[in-house]
Automatic annotation (TrEMBL):
SMART domains assigned: ETF
Record domain Electron transfer flavoprotein alpha/beta-subunit N-terminal: where: 4-185
Entry keyword Isomerase: no
Protein source organism: Haloferax prahovense (strain DSM 18310 / JCM 13924 / TL6)
Keywords on record: FAD, Flavoprotein
Lineage, top ranks: Archaea, Methanobacteriati, Methanobacteriota, Stenosarchaea group, Halobacteria
Pfam families in the record: ETF, ETF_alpha
Entry annotated with the keyword Flavoprotein: yes
Protein name (Swiss-Prot/TrEMBL): Electron transfer flavoprotein subunit alpha
Annotated GO MF terms: electron transfer activity; flavin adenine dinucleotide binding
């Protein structure tokens, strides 16, 4: 029997998607052997977050009302204190900017091995973690040679938990050592233009290097407008300075899970796919019938975007 403590994430008053994915990952893990799934909700509007996280598979939610936003030192101390109280076999965190900030310190404090960037978890008499290597070209299996472990899970790999449940919700208090809280979030400044959050969009029209010239992006923007969609891109478009960084989808950009993702002139490199493979429906437009994007596309159009896109605009306008 293995208990799991999953630490959820929030930012600027909203729970991050990875929180709901952590519930699925944690529930699967305890489901392998029995045990309880505990959630740690640290900072922000903990009561509202606990209500939103009252989901099937969750046994208990522990709220820690300390601060409004993520804070490395508070998280490390809170997770350490909760772990000492609950004695979980596994501590799950997001493989996110926040998660990678505090997870190593948590593992060090609790003397746990840390496995990062998990895309699969199995508990078969011991923890087995699936990871990717060599820019996602190879999958590796890590057999954890320890009774307990800390793991960070990659966003977008597990389905977000949705089904309501009835976990217990308890406020958890501990003696926060203020002298060890060395920094506080004082404000936010968005990278790029900051006017759009592509992770919120239901429909993304995404443009890649096949667009050839900066001025041609207007054509894809017209399609996005006709569909009421948001414009995003592959990395070369951002590297060229044609769109701001906050439009980039992929491993070094954003992970998106829209209902429709329309990839135009995008080859489907692993680093791009890492950011969009969770889309419900993927449409690809590419001149190359062997482009890897077609391996994951639900609908594919082999054709020249400069012919296909104007035709689509006409259909949808
Ligand atoms: C550490 C690391 C991190 C990375 N992170 C990211 C990331 O976050 N996001 C990301 O996107 N990439 C990332 N990359 C880069 C990635 O490896 C690819 O280079 C990139 O995704 C390619 O972008 P693309 O598909 O737009 O361009 P290309 O690979 O050049 O593909 C262009 C495609 O357009 C098609 N095409 C050309 N002309 C037309 C036309 N007229 N009509 C239709 N189709 C046409 C071509 O057939 C081709 O398939 C990363 C790389 C590394 C090493």
């Amino acid at each position: 029997m293995s208990d799991v403590l999953a630490v959820v994430e929030h930012r600027r008053g909203s729970l991050r998607d990875v929180s709901f994915e952590l519930v699925t990952a944690g529930a699967d893990l305890v489901g392998d052997t029995g045990g309880d799934l505990h959630l740690a909700v640290i900072g922000g509007d903990v009561d509202a977050f606990a209500e939103a996280l009252s989901l099937a598979g969750v046994d208990a939610i522990h709220t820690v009302a300390e601060g409004d936003e993520f804070n490395h030192d508070v998280y490390v101390q809170a997770v350490e204190a909760l772990s000492e109280e609950l004695d979980p076999t596994y501590v799950l965190m997001g493989n996110t900017v926040n998660g990678l900030d505090y997870a190593p310190a948590v593992a060090e404090r609790l003397d746990l091995p840390l496995v990062t960037d998990a895309i699969g978890l199995q508990n078969d008499g011991g923890l087995v973690v699936t990871r990717e290597m060599y820019a996602s070209k190879v999958e590796s299996t890590v057999e954890v040679d320890a009774d307990r472990a800390a793991v960070t899970v990659r966003p977008g790999e597990w389905d977000a938990a949705e089904e309501p449940g009835e976990p217990t919700v308890e406020a958890f208090s501990f003696d926060l050592d203020e002298s060890r809280v060395r920094s506080r979030v004082t404000g936010f400044e968005e990278a790029g233009s900051g006017d759009v959050d592509i992770t919120d969009a239901d429909v993304l029209v995404s443009v890649g290097r096949g667009i050839e010239e900066e001025e041609n992006i207007e054509l894809v923007q017209e399609l996005a407008d006709a569909l009421g969609a948001t414009l995003s891109s592959s990395r070369p478009i951002v590297d060229n300075g044609w769109l701001p960084k906050d439009r980039q989808v992929g491993q070094s950009g954003k992970v998106v899970t829209p209902k429709f993702y329309i990839a135009i002139g995008i080859s489907g490199a692993v680093q791009h796919v890492a950011g969009m493979k969770g889309a419900e429906n993927i449409v690809a437009i590419n001149t190359d019938p062997d482009a890897p994007i077609f391996d994951i596309a639900d609908y594919g159009i082999v054709g020249d975007l400069f012919e296909v896109v104007p035709e689509l605009i006409e259909q949808f306008e």
